[in-house]
C-alpha cells in the first residue's frame, strides 16, 4: 500500500491507497482491531478535522451474506475526541450513480444504533461482505441506508463511537459524524459538492449520536450546510435510562454503557474497581465483546446492584458517577438545524418524559422543532414505521420547503396514517431488492 505524503493542512486527502484492493472476492474482512486500515498514519494530528487519511473501496452485503450491486468507499479521517484532542475514525460512503446536473447531490449521515463496544458492531465492519456480526443492528439498518440511496442521496455511515467503541460518550459522536461528512464531501473520487445540503438521521443510539451532531454543528462545523436532523428516540438522559433499564429485559444496554464509559472517565473506573465484585468486573469485561442483541439477550434481568459491595443508589449518588451522568445528558446546547424528533409514548427503553423535556429545552432555546409523539407505537416498532415520515421530512429540507419556527407536537399515530403505508410499500420494494441482491436504483417520489 502506497502511504503517500502529507497534503495541505486544509486539503481533502492526506493519504491514498489502491481504490479496489479490498474488492477481491472471497476475502473475509478483518475486525477493526486487526485491520491496519484503521491505524492512523504518523503525523495525522497535524491534519485539519475531516481530512481523509486513507481510503478503500469495499463490498457491502446484507447481513454479511447477500452482496449488494454497489460500490462503497471507506474513509479513515482525522476527527476530534470528547476532550478536543485529535482522533480518527472511519465512515462508509455510498453515492448514487445518477446525479441531478442542476444542483449538488444531497448527503445524509445515517447513524446506526451501534449501542455496543465490540468492533464487530461498527458499521464499517458489519456492513461488509463476509462480516460475522450476528446481533449487530447496523446489518438491519442497511435497509434504511438503501432507502436514502434510492432517493438519489449520498449516504455517510460513520463509526460514530470511534475506534474504541465509546458508547455513550458526549460530544465525540457529533464530531465524528460531522467530520465524516466533511471527508465524504471533499474526497474527489466521490464527486460531491462541499456546498451540498446535509441531513442527519438516526434512531435510538443513532438518534443520540445525531443529536450530539446537531448540538455541536454551529460551533464545530459551521462550514457544513446542515439543513435538518431526524432524531429518532434519542437517549436524552443516559442516567435516567440506567435506572430505568437496570434489572429489566434490556439491562444489557446500561451494562455496555458503563463498560464503555469506564475507559474515558478514570474516576468512574476507579469507583468500579473499588466497589464492583469479581462477578461484576468479569461481566463488564465480557459485555465489551458482545454484539448489541447478544448482550440484551444474554443479560436479561441482570441487576447491577447485586454486583457491587454497597447499595446501588449510594454508588449512583457519588460525585464521580453524578459527574458522568451530568456530562452525557443532551440539551446543553441548542441545535441550529431544524429538528424532527420522533418518540413513542409507550417506549420501554427511552422514557417519553425525557424526550418531552429535551424537545421543550430545544424549543425554548429557539430551535425549530417538529415533535412526533406517537401514542400507539413502542421503541422497536416506531423505528421502521417512522422511516417514511423521516424520508419525507428530509426530502422537504433538501427541497428548501418552509418550516414552522416553533414546536409542532403531533400525536396522530403513524399506524393510523395512510401515508405511512404508502411509504412502507416503497420501503418493502427496496428491502426486497436488498435481500435478493438486486440493484437499488434511484426511485425518488
From TrEMBL:
Cited Gene3D superfamilies: 1.10.260.130, alpha/beta hydrolase
Domain of life (superkingdom): Bacteria
InterPro entries reported in the protein's UniProt record: AB_hydrolase_fold, Lipase_secreted
Transmembrane segments: none
Record protein name field: Lipase family protein
Amino acid at each position: 500500500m502506497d502511504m503517500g505524503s502529507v497534503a495541505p493542512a486544509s486539503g481533502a486527502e492526506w493519504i491514498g491507497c489502491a481504490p479496489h484492493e479490498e474488492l477481491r472476492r472471497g476475502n473475509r474482512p478483518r475486525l477493526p482491531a486487526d485491520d491496519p486500515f484503521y491505524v492512523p498514519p504518523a503525523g495525522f494530528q497535524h491534519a485539519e478535522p475531516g481530512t481523509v487519511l486513507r481510503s478503500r473501496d469495499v463490498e457491502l452485503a446484507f447481513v454479511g451474506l447477500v452482496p449488494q450491486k454497489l460500490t462503497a468507499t471507506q474513509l479513515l479521517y482525522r476527527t476530534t475526541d470528547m476532550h478536543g484532542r485529535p482522533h480518527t475514525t472511519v465512515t462508509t460512503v455510498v453515492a448514487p450513480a445518477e446525479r441531478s446536473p442542476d444542483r449538488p447531490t444531497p448527503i445524509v449521515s445515517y447513524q446506526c444504533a451501534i449501542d455496543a463496544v465490540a468492533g464487530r458492531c461498527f458499521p464499517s465492519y458489519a456492513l461488509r461482505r463476509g462480516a460475522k456480526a450476528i446481533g449487530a443492528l447496523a446489518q438491519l439498518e442497511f435497509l434504511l441506508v438503501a432507502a436514502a440511496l434510492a432517493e438519489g442521496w449520498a449516504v455517510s455511515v460513520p463509526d460514530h463511537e470511534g475506534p474504541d467503541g465509546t458508547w455513550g460518550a458526549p460530544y465525540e459522536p457529533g464530531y465524528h459524524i460531522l467530520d465524516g461528512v466533511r471527508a465524504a464531501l471533499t474526497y474527489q473520487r466521490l464527486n460531491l459538492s462541499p456546498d451540498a445540503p446535509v441531513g442527519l438521521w438516526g434512531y435510538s443510539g443513532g438518534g443520540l449520536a445525531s443529536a450530539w451532531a446537531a448540538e455541536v454543528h454551529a460551533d464545530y462545523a459551521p462550514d457544513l450546510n446542515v439543513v435538518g436532523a431526524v432524531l429518532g428516540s434519542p437517549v436524552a438522559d443516559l442516567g435516567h435510562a440506567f435506572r430505568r433499564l437496570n434489572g429489566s429485559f434490556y439491562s444489557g444496554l446500561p451494562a455496555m454503557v458503563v463498560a464503555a464509559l469506564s475507559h474515558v472517565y478514570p474516576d468512574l473506573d476507579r469507583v468500579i474497581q473499588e466497589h464492583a465484585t469479581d462477578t461484576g468486573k468479569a461481566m463488564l469485561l465480557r459485555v465489551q465483546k458482545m454484539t448489541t442483541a447478544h448482550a440484551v439477550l444474554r443479560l436479561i434481568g441482570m441487576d447491577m446492584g447485586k454486583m457491587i459491595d454497597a447499595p446501588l443508589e449510594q454508588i449512583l449518588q457519588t460525585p464521580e458517577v453524578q459527574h458522568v451522568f451530568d456530562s452525557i445528558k443532551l440539551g446543553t446546547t441548542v441545535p441550529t438545524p431544524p429538528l424532527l424528533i420522533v418518540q413513542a409514548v409507550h417506549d420501554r427503553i427511552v422514557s417519553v418524559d425525557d424526550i418531552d423535556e429535551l424537545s421543550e429545552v430545544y424549543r425554548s432555546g429557539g430551535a425549530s422543532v417538529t415533535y412526533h409523539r406517537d401514542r400507539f407505537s413502542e421503541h422497536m416498532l416506531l423505528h421502521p414505521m417512522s422511516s417514511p415520515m423521516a424520508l419525507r421530512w428530509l426530502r422537504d429540507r433538501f427541497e428548501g420547503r418552509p418550516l414552522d419556527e416553533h414546536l409542532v407536537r403531533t400525536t396522530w399515530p403513524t399506524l393510523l396514517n395512510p401515508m405511512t403505508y404508502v411509504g412502507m410499500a416503497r420501503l418493502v420494494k427496496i428491502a426486497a431488492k436488498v435481500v435478493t441482491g438486486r440493484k437499488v436504483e434511484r426511485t425518488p417520489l
